[in-house]
Amino acid sequence: MVIFAKRVAHLVNVSAVADPDGASVVYSVTGALFFASSNDLVGRFDYSGDPDRVIIALTAGHIWDASSVAALDAIETKYAKRGKTVEIIGLNQPSAKIHENLSGELTSH
């Protein structure tokens, strides 16, 4: 199981597309978000360089556990400290339920 976790931890992809007017950026996150991949996720965003509105699209991603929710909370906190807002969109139903139940309840990174 440990070997499997190490192998799939790096299968999360994050790509950013800035809005042409420069007012927002959309980060598309694909892959399985779980304890082995969530720490890496926090470091994949440009907190100081991004515009004031950040959208995280998880349409092709899936939240598997509490550590993923904590990572998303940490990302939101890092942006909020810079006066920026984050909107998380595209969660499938199971991911949305986990996120709704745990967001704000966990200690951030």
Written overview of the protein:
It is a single chain. By secondary structure, the chain is an alpha/beta fold. The protein has a single domain (2-102), classed as 2-Layer Sandwich (Transcription Regulator spoIIAA), CATH 3.30.750.24. The chain has helices at 2-8, 35-42, 66-80, 93-102, and strands at residues 13-18, 24-33, 53-57, 61-63, 85-89. Strands 1, 2, 3, 4 and 5 form a five-stranded mixed β-sheet that branches. The mean pLDDT is 89.
Strand-helix topology:
Layout: H1 2-8, E1 13-18, E2 24-33, H2 35-42, E3 53-57, E4 61-63, H3 66-80, E5 85-89, H4 93-102
Parallel strand pairs: 2-3, 2-4, 3-5
Antiparallel strand pairs: 1-2
Proportion of helical residues: 25-40%
The CATH class is Alpha Beta
Tell me what portion of residues adopts beta-strand conformation. Answer: 25-35%
The CATH superfamily appears as STAS domain
Into how many domains do the coordinates divide?
A: 1
Note the main sheet. Answer: 5 strands, mixed
Mean pLDDT: 89
Number of helices: 4
Features:
five-stranded mixed β-sheet, alpha/beta, 27% strand, single chain, Transcription Regulator spoIIAA, 4 helices, 109 residues
